[in-house]
Amino acid sequence: GAGVSQTPSNKVTEKGKYVELRCDPISGHTALYWYRQSLGQGPEFLIYFQGTGAADDSGLPNDRFFAVRPEGSVSTLKIQRTERGDSAVYLCASSATNLGSPLHFGNGTRLTVT
Amino acid sequence: QKEVEQNSGPLSVPEGAIASLNCTYSDRVSQSFFWYRQYSGKSPELIMSIYSNGDKEDGRFTAQLNKASQYVSLLIRDSQPSDSATYLCATEAGGFKTIFGAGTRLFVKA
Q: Mapping DSSP to helix (H, G, I), strand (E, B) and coil, where does residue A60 land?
């Protein structure tokens, strides 16, 4: 079966623009996560979905960031009015629903805000 | 603020030696602990998971958990140059939210 798929792999945008990052999880995985990773740092938790609902969005840095998962499968991370500090690799991961399941990561989207 | 702490390294060991990676966590209710390996420019991949106190062995890797001390470690026996990577310690901080340490960079010298 296919792994977690993220598109685009790279995105360059100008400061102030709007971007959407897409994640297609492993089939059957109900849990979906978004992380942000800067150079030399570990993945920083942003938001977690269980099914269609955001179970924990405590990691979203501010109201410019928003994520949806309308049908409980594909998720989109949306960033409004991008800033240079948003530049990072955005990682999506999925896992089976039971507690203690490890995460399966996609290849990430490298976002560069110029 | 729930945290996972790791020494950033780099940790350098000769080929064939044992590499020892350490991690502490702040959330006493954490039940699940993971070690991920991340090669430069790649995404993290799971190496080991451990859920109860003691040792868990898988090939050249051994994870050790001590919940009383809030301490997790990873031992890599017979280290190979291909083991050179960043090793991320992770735990579940309440519910399903998995949080990561900053990672320890390991270099295995041939």
A: coil
Amino acid at site B28: R
| Cα separation, B110 vs B22, whole angstroms | 23
CB B92 within 8 A of CB B35: no
Q: Which chain A residue's Cα is nearest to B101?
A: A42
Q: How many CB atoms lie within 10 A of CB A9?
A: 10
CB contact under 8 A, B95 and A55: yes
Q: How many CB atoms lie within 10 A of CB B18?
A: 12
Q: Which residues of chain B neighbour A91 with C-beta distances below 8 Å?
A: 43-44
Give the integer Cα–Cα distance in Å for A94 and A7: 15
Per-residue pLDDT of chain A (114 residues; tens, 9 = 90+): 589 999 999 999 999 999 999 999 999 999 999 999 999 999 999 999 998 988 899 999 999 999 999 998 999 999 999 999 999 999 999 998 766 789 999 999 999 999
User: Cα separation of B6 and B34, whole Å?
Assistant: 13
